[in-house]
Fold this protein.
Amino acid sequence: MVTVVFGAGGNVGRNVAAGLSSAGEKVRLTSRKPLPTGFPPGAEVVTADLESPETLPAVLDGAQRVFLYAKPEGIDGFVTAAESAGVQHVVLLSSGSVLHPDAAHNPIARSHIAVESALENSGLAWTFIRPGMFATNTLWWWRDSIRDESTVRVPYPDAQTAPIHEKDLAALAVTAFTRPGHRGRAYPVWGPESLSIRQQVRHIGAAVGREITLEPISVEQARVELGKTMPPIGIDAILAAWQAGTIAPPQVSTVVADVTGRPAHTFAQWAEDHANDFR
């Protein structure tokens, strides 16, 4: 049985491919750009673009399952190609933002809702994974300042968040593909623990073996800093999440343990896994 993994060069897609290969499954990896090294031996690697529907029939030919990220601009072409190819099951990496009360007014939520709706209205079986904050976002925000200055600058140092390890999101996808009972299910998933930014920075410092200074800055300064690595839509989302984390602790979840049968990774474990990124 062939599983096509879109975005196989990404943090989650790479781990989905590795998890499926470790389980003895045949994978076909796709990317719009030449793929980095380090993928499972024997994996089939192809070039494809969800926004270029003409690339999809060949990629999906003979495939029964697909791991997909949310790309509303290409979803109609994907559904058509997947149905024609006889794909049986799609696992979508969606977003927890679709569950927010203001989802209809949230650009990130709207784009994910569009993809979910297209799959729900198709003839394809689906599973939705709806994560909250990715731990890997930390690399966007703080990697350069930690590398260069051993400093993190944030407007809300005591804000609480519940970051999710990308390996846990991949494990959910692999489980949904390889075990029964997950079709037609949507899994909201947050990290297993609520931590302040201050605590997260301490964990990164412990992982890299040096002290990291935490420097409070204004929201306006934070916009400038985040703008160096993030688009405006992402800046608004993270600042809102941090601000909310100063008012009440975020949700945490046991979904990873409940679905996969093993505990979710802590942020300290994520920091250890990514220590070299901060060195």
Summary: The CA atoms of residues 88 and 124 lie 6 Å apart. The mean pLDDT is 93. The first helix runs from residue 11 to 22. The chain has two domains: 2-131, 137-163+192-250+265-278.
